[in-house]
Amino acid sequence: MLRWRPMPSETLLYCLTRDRELADALEGRLATTLSFFYNDAARLHQAIVLRPPDLAVVDAGAVRREYGDAGLAPIVAFLRSEAPGARVAVRPIRGAEWLVAAEAGEQIEMLPAEADACVAAVAALCEPA
Fold first, then answer.
1. Closest by alpha carbon to 18, among 61, 72, 74?
2. Domains of the chain by start residue, with CATH
3. How far apart are the C-alpha atoms of 122 and 129, rounded to whole Å?
4. CA distances (Å), 65 to each of 20, 23, 91, 114, 125, in order?
5. For residue range 52-104, what is the model confidence (pLDDT) as tens digits?
């Protein structure tokens, strides 16, 4: 007789980044995570409305006014309102960590700006508790 055993659920990760090398490194490292990458905030918003993630990573370098983005604060506020159970992590722009932290607000995970350290930090956030 077969016994039913629940499978551990995968962490659902949404990542807003325009850094292809970071996306490739995250995808390669996060084998047990269901990861989706977006290069603009509008696509990230659409995905969140359909299914909120467990973890949302926002690369501050992907937020650009020339692409119509209003800034980091509105993206984090949208994540908080539409996915209240999601953990939010922000990768700052090197040298502007304090400014990015201030704009993102409280209750976020600040990631390292350096790519390898950022990948390691995200991997740690995706590990089961």
1. 61
2. 11-126 (3.40.50.2300)
3. 14
4. 20, 21, 17, 23, 29
5. 999 999 999 888 777 666 788 899 999 999 999 999 999 998 888 888 888 88
E strand spans, 1-129? 11-16, 33-38, 55-59, 87-91, 109-110
Closest CA to 30 of 98, 112, 120, 92: 120
> Which letter does DSSP use for residue 82 in this model?
H
Q: Which two tokens stand for residue 88?
A: 């939010």
pTM listed for this prediction: 0.87
Place of tokens 């999601």: 86
Burial 22-32 (b: 16+ CB within 10 A, else e): bbebbbeebee
